[in-house]
Amino acid sequence: MVGGVIVSASYRTDIPAFYAEWFFERLRQGYVRVKNPYSGQLYEVSLRREDVDGFVFWTRNFGPFLPRLGALLDFGRPFTVQYTVTGYPRKLEAAVVPAETAVEQIRALARDVHALCPVWRYDPVVISEATPRGFHLEQFRALAKRLEGATDEVVISFVHIYAKSARNLAKTGLTVIDPEAAQKRELAAELAAIAREHGMSLTLCSQPEFLAEGCGEARCVDAGRLAAMAGYPVSAALRGNRPGCACYESRDIGDYDTCPHGCAYCYAVRNRALALKRYKTHSPLSESL
């Protein structure tokens, strides 16, 4: 057993897609400074090997990390990749890599790192005129078929319309529908059945109220998965970061309003122009993102 923390990188932004150089510089330096999103105060998170139990990466494009995979493996700590692939129209996802590219990367992670490394996220489920219920059943089935054997879990959630995401969704011109809870549970059960057909379990992220037959609670930060990869116990408390979250405790090293993917439903970005500006002015040598 190691006595460190699980580092989340990051549910606030896409570090593998946009900040690979910065991350590996911080890994080399052995620490990162993180801004508290509420107080604005900076605090330090150690990235020294002896202080880290493992990493959880959240991404829509792991490509920039792949040439540095050797360095990450040499660090000697397990890591999982929460990889979002939905194949939504560009109105909803302005600049993500094609689904085919994402599928290839997930397969590479399962092959070159560990079978337990990649976890597919079909997240969030957005019901709109461009993505009605039938779209999701068809799209999910197609992606599950292509990812069969490359992952054992798919995580879903139903979109939560925060104020910032409501503004961004309104700009798309699409009407987004919020189905009744019973309809969400019905769709979740159907998606879970499709997942099982392709060797995956389906879990719900931070939405226990929509659990249905065949569904489980997601632990996106999963000490058990990291321990199974590492071959030794990983000690962490069950302590989610929001109501309904079933994750283990972690320290996130990202920052909001820094991901320029331009997903209209994203809760972590006020507007893409701001995120692009911060991305372009960011320094890979900075202590904080």
Order of helices and strands: EHHEEEHEHEEHEHEHEEHEH
CATH class division? Alpha Beta
Our Rg estimate from Cα atoms comes to 18 Å
Q: State mean pLDDT (0 to 100 scale).
A: 95
Name of the CATH architecture? Alpha-Beta Barrel
Are there runs of 5+ residues with pLDDT below 50, and where? none
Helix share bin: 25-40%
Q: What count of structural domains? A: 1
Let me know the largest β-sheet: 8 strands, parallel
- Gross geometry: globular
Count the strands?
Answer: 12
Structural class: alpha/beta
Give the end-to-end Cα distance, rounded to a whole number of Å: 30 Å
According to CATH, what is the topology? TIM Barrel
Strand fraction equals: 15-25%
Provide a count of the helices. 9
Strands of the largest sheet, in order across it?
A: 11-10-8-6-5-4-1-12
Compact description:
Strand 4, helix 3 and strand 5 form a beta-alpha-beta unit. With 289 residues, the chain is of the alpha/beta class. It is globular.
Q: What structural keywords apply?
A:
289 residues, alpha/beta, TIM Barrel, 8-stranded parallel β-sheet, two-stranded antiparallel ribbon, 9 helices
Structure description:
The chain has one domain: Alpha-Beta Barrel (TIM Barrel). Helices cover 33% and strands 19% of the residues. The mean pLDDT is 95. The longest helix has 17 residues. With 289 residues, it is of the alpha/beta class. It starts with a strand and ends in an 8-residue tail after the last helix. The strands form 3 sheets. An 8-stranded parallel sheet has the order 11-10-8-6-5-4-1-12. It contains 9 helices and 12 strands. It is globular and about 50 Å long.
